[in-house]
C-alpha cells in the first residue's frame, strides 16, 4: 500500500541560508559553538499535528538532523547529513510519509500597464476608480503585464519604502534582512 503524503515548504531568507550553509561547509566544528551544540532549529508543522525539526548541529563536520515529532515525542530520525541546508527531508511514520522542503525565500517585482479609452479627457485616478470605470463606468480598459523579475530582499526593501510601505509588510527590516515575522 502506498503511504499517504504530507508535504510542507519552509521558506528561509537567503542570508540565513548562506550563514547556516557556511557553518555546514566547515570541515571542523565552528569555534562559535560547543561541540554537538545545536546552532539552529527550524520547525514546520503538518496538518495532522506532526512536525519536523531540522537542526543544524556543530560537529566534525557540522551536520543536519531531521526529526519527526508529535506532541513532543520523537518518532523518527533521518540519518544525519551535511550541507546544503536547502532540499527535502523525508521521514515516515505509520502509513504516512512526511516531507519538508527547505527553499530560499524569494521576492518578485511586476510592472503592469493599463490603457484606458474614453470619450473625454482622463484625469489621474486611484486603482479603485480605474477598476470602477473599466467595469461599470464609461471607459474601456486593457491591463497588460510588462515585466516580472526576481529581486533581492534589499531591492524589495528599497522599493517598499519608495512606495510608502513598511518593509515589515513582507517580514523585512530596513536593511532587507528577514525578521522571521510575516
Key descriptive features of the protein:
2 domains; 182 residues; 9 strands; four-stranded antiparallel β-sheet; three-stranded mixed β-sheet; alpha+beta
Helical fraction: 10-25%
Rg over CA atoms: 23 Å
Task: Please tally the β strands and state the result.
Answer: 9
Largest sheet: 4 strands, antiparallel
- Taken in chain order, the helices and strands follow as EHEEEEEEEHEH
Helix/strand class:
alpha+beta
Given as residue ranges, the uncertain stretches (5+ residues, pLDDT < 50) are: none
Task: Provide a count of the helices.
Answer: 3
Range of strand content:
35-45%
Report on the structure:
The protein has 182 residues and is an alpha+beta fold. It folds into two domains: 4-104, no CATH class; 107-170, no CATH class. Helices cover 16% and strands 42% of the residues. The chain has helices at residues 14-24, 127-135, 153-162, and strands spanning 4-12, 38-45, 50-57, 63-70, 73-77, 87-93, 96-104, 107-117, 140-151. The strands form three sheets. The chain has a four-stranded antiparallel sheet, with no helix packed on it. Strands 1-7-6 form a three-stranded mixed sheet. Strands 8-9 form a two-stranded antiparallel ribbon. A hairpin with a 2-residue loop joins β6 (87-93) and β7 (96-104). The longest helix has 11 residues, at 14-24. The radius of gyration is 23 Å and the shape is elongated. The mean pLDDT is 91.
Amino acid at each position: 500500500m502506498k503511504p499517504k503524503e504530507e508535504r510542507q515548504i519552509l521558506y528561509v531568507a537567503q542570508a540565513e541560508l548562506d550563514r547556516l550553509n557556511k557553518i555546514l561547509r566547515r570541515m571542523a566544528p565552528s569555534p562559535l559553538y560547543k561541540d554537538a551544540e545545536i546552532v539552529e532549529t527550524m520547525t514546520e508543522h503538518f496538518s495532522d499535528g506532526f512536525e519536523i525539526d531540522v537542526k543544524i548541529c556543530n560537529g566534525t563536520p557540522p551536520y543536519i538532523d531531521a526529526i519527526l515529532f508529535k506532541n513532543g515525542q520523537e518518532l523518527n530520525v533521518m540519518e544525519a547529513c551535511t550541507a546544503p541546508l536547502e532540499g527535502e527531508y523525508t521521514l515516515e511514520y505509520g502509513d504516512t510519509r512526511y516531507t519538508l522542503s527547505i527553499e530560499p525565500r524569494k521576492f518578485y517585482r511586476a510592472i503592469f500597464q493599463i490603457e484606458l479609452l474614453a470619450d473625454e479627457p482622463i484625469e489621474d485616478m486611484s486603482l479603485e476608480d480605474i477598476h470602477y470605470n473599466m467595469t461599470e463606468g464609461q471607459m474601456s480598459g486593457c491591463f497588460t503585464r510588462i515585466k516580472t523579475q526576481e529581486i533581492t530582499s534589499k531591492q524589495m526593501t528599497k522599493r517598499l519604502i519608495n512606495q510608502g510601505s513598511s518593509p515589515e509588510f513582507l517580514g523585512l527590516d530596513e536593511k532587507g534582512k528577514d525578521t522571521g515575522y510575516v
